[in-house]
Design a protein that fits this description.
The chain is an all-alpha fold. The protein is 78% helix and 0% strand. The chain has a domain at 2-57.
């Protein structure tokens, strides 16, 4: 039941974002482009909301339950640092022409 509630809430928020993105694109472009953008975001939000709901309600996840074997904050920070180091590595900066 908790999974369904989290899914519905995240879907509601995601679809609100989809409407906003569609209207923003429509304002800066043609109505057709805004509609296509909205439809793409609309269907993508179902996938994103489901993945987010499963991750939040998953037993033992950092967001779901820290007491019962959730990930340690140090491991999360180390993963973020490794990702950032790879993202802003020397080869990436050379490829960007910086």
């Amino acid at each position: 039941m908790r999974l369904l509630v989290v899914f519905i809430i995240s879907l509601f928020v995601g679809q609100s974002i989809s409407v906003g993105i569609g209207l923003l694109v429509e304002h800066h472009s043609t109505p057709y482009t805004g509609l296509v953008t909205f439809i793409a975001c609309y269907f993508a939000m179902f996938w994103v909301a489901w993945r987010l709901a499963v991750r939040i309600t998953e037993p033992g996840s950092l967001l779901g339950d820290m007491k019962n074997g959730g990930a340690k904050p140090g491991a999360i920070l180390l993963g973020a640092y490794a990702g950032a180091d790879d993202l802003w590595g020397y080869s990436t900066l050379l490829a960007a022409g910086v």
